[in-house]
From TrEMBL:
Entry-linked Pfam families: DUF2498
Name of the featured protein: Protein YciN
NCBIfam families reported for this sequence: PRK11037.1
Species this protein is from: Aeromonas molluscorum 848
InterPro entries noted in UniProt: DUF2498, YciN_sf
Amino acid sequence: MHTPKETLSQEALLTLANDIIRSHEDFIHGMRADGVEQRGDVLVFKGEYFMTDDGTPTPKTMAVFNMFKYLAHQLSDKYQLD
């Protein structure tokens, strides 16, 4: 049986996502979600990826990517954007 998703505003989803980020064991200082959009059934989170000035990834880049992927998996089944 499919459970209906709760509809939240972008602000509410970002607050929830950033609470999860801060409490996660892989949190890095400065890591935060600054935006979220709905793409089909998936919530896509955006924020600072800690790239170098020339756009090259840093070791922090993969940690942020993984965190945003984690948020999508954790929250997309429960919530949708208002």
